[in-house]
Amino acid sequence: MEQKYQAVLAVIRDGVSVVEVANRFGVSRQSVHSWLLRYEQEGMLGLADRSHKPQSCEHQMSAQTQVRVIELRRQNLFWGPIRIQHQLLREGVEPLPSVSGIYRALKRAKMIEPGARKERDRKFKRWERGGPMELWQMDIVGGILLADGNELKCLTGVDDHSRLCVMAGLMVRATSRAVCDHFAQAMKIHGVPQEILTDNGKVFTGRFGPKQSEVLFDRICRENGIDHLLTAPRSPTTTGKIERFHRSLRTEFLTSRTFQTQEHAQSELDAWVDHYNRIRPHQGIGMVTPIARFANPGVSSIGPELDATAASEVRTGPDWISRRVGANGVVSIAWQQISVGKHRGGHNVDIHIDKEMVQIFDGSELIKSALRNRPGEVIRKRNAQTITT
User: Whole-prediction pTM value?
Assistant: First the structure.
C-alpha cells in the first residue's frame, strides 16, 4: 500500500509522468493508472490490497448441477462419471460439466475411492466382430436365490458386436437339455448366429471328456451351420463381454434380492433384460443402447467405468448438525423441510450444511442432497458425532 501511495504522489504532486513512475516502481502503466483512479474515487482506502480471486468462473459447476450429480451417484452406485454426464446431457443440463469435473465433485463428496485405479493390463487386446449375429458369447452364472434357500442357474448370451442380451434363461440345474432349450428359444427369436463362443463346460462340449463325444449343444451347432469356438483353459478374458454382462447383472439386478419362485425370478429378469437392451445406454459402445447398435452396426466403442465407495469421516465442527427424522420422514433445517422417507422415521441423521447445499447422512450412507431455499441461521441442537463404517 505504501508503494502505491508513493507512486500516486509522484504523479499528482511532483508531476512525474506515468511512464517514468511505472519504470521507477517496476510496474505496468496500467497498474499506475488503476491506482490513480482508485485513489481519486476512494482515497487511501482504495489503495489497500485486494483479492485477485475472480468473482465468477464460467467453467465452475453450479450448485444445482452438483446436487444432481451427487443424487445420480447415490441412486445408482454403479454409475461412473461418463454415465452420469450422459444422463445430464439427456436431461438437458447446461452448461454440461466435464467428466473430470464430475469426478472431482464425487471425490469432494467422498463417493469415490481415494486409492488409485488399477491400470489395465496392456497385454489384453480388445476385439469385437464387425457386425451383429456374427458371434454370440455364452456362459452359465449362478447366484439367483429363492426364498426357500434354493439357487437357480442362468444361461446368458450376448451378441459380440452390439452387446445385445440374446438370452437369459433360468434353470434349477444346468443340464444339457435345459441349456439347449434356452439356446433354441433364443435362436427362434433372433435367428441363427454365425459363431458361438463358450468355455469348455460339459454342457457345451464333449471334446475334453474321457471319451470324445458330441453333446446336444454341439449337435445343434453342427445342424445349424454354427461354428462353435472354445476358450483356452483358464482364459476368462476371452469371453470378456459376457463376463462384463454378468457384473452388470449382479450389481444392477441381483444385489440383495431373493425371489419367491422361479417364475417370479424369470419375470423380473426378463424386465431387467428388456431395460438393458432398449433403454440403458452402454458405455462400451459409445453410450448407445444395444438394440440400436444391433439394428445399426458400426458405432465406435470407448472404455469401461469404476465404482467406488465412500470413506468414513469425522463429523464435528460448525458445518455439521444432527436431527431426528420425524414420523412422516421429514427433516427440518432452518425452516426448510426435506423428506428422506418414512422408513427412516425416528432415525438420528447427520447433516452437513454450507451456503448453498445440505447433505444428509444416515450412519455412513448419504441419503439426500438438496439445495437450501432458506439460507438463514441454523439452530444447532448438537454437533454430530464421529461416524465409523
Answer: 0.57
